[in-house]
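INFO batch 0412 | record 1 of 1 | parsing
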Amino acid sequence: MVDADDDDDTEDASGNAEPVRPIRALMRGLETLRELNLRNGATVTDVARAVGLPRTTAYRVLETLCVMELAFRDPRDDRYRLTLKVRSLSDGFDDEAWVDGIAKPVVAKLARDMAWPMTISTLHGTSMLARDVPGKDSSTGSNGEIAGIRMPLLTSSSGRVLLAMCGEEQRATLLDILARSERPEDRLARDKSLLNRILAEARSNGWAVYDDPALPELSLALPILARNRFLASLAMRFTRTAMTPDQAVEKYLPFLKRAAVDIGEAFENHQYAAG
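INFO prediction complete | emitting tokens
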């Protein structure tokens, strides 16, 4: 027997397709996601009232989202909140489109005059995803900032720039998740005093350098912004034997800033034309 919700489209006697009956369970799940997105946490009762569901059904929907790791139940106040995995529903679509169509041409022009590889990275869950951009050895590098590779937020210049420049609510959510992580690269999230100083410096400078003495490469990153909204990080990798961080900032930061501004303005113009 086939479930009625899974039936193919049917036709009436005149050959016209009958309206497809919506899948109510899916609609409830999506409406609940939307409601959680509008709130800083919601109880079962909140969701039941907002979506128009019996309390037991709302509970089942919320627990299903938790199983899917799209939401979690916060033991501090018994409210349900979205996880950053919700971003995976759109990650790789909008970002891929604007990076390919808007950012790459700008970076390609800059890369012709730069001696070092560059990477554009966007937030992907609780890490930065390096996007493929043209440049010297753009697919290789020892510090992890390479195309298709995810970089930790706290141990990469791209991640630190994001944390410094993103909104307070997003930053708090990210740091809360990282502080509960057992991964060694997330340990800094539990040292709030040191982390606050690092992010304050990056915010004040408008850029960040990540320097791990154990690695032969360093990275210099700055944000790509559109109407003060963080879009991505633009990073340049360089070797410590070639120059110091101060020398890299003095020589290359003006060019990177110009590229970041050009990308941000092109994105804004694209959004205006599309809207």
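INFO post-check: The chain has two domains: 4-82, 89-274.
INFO record closed
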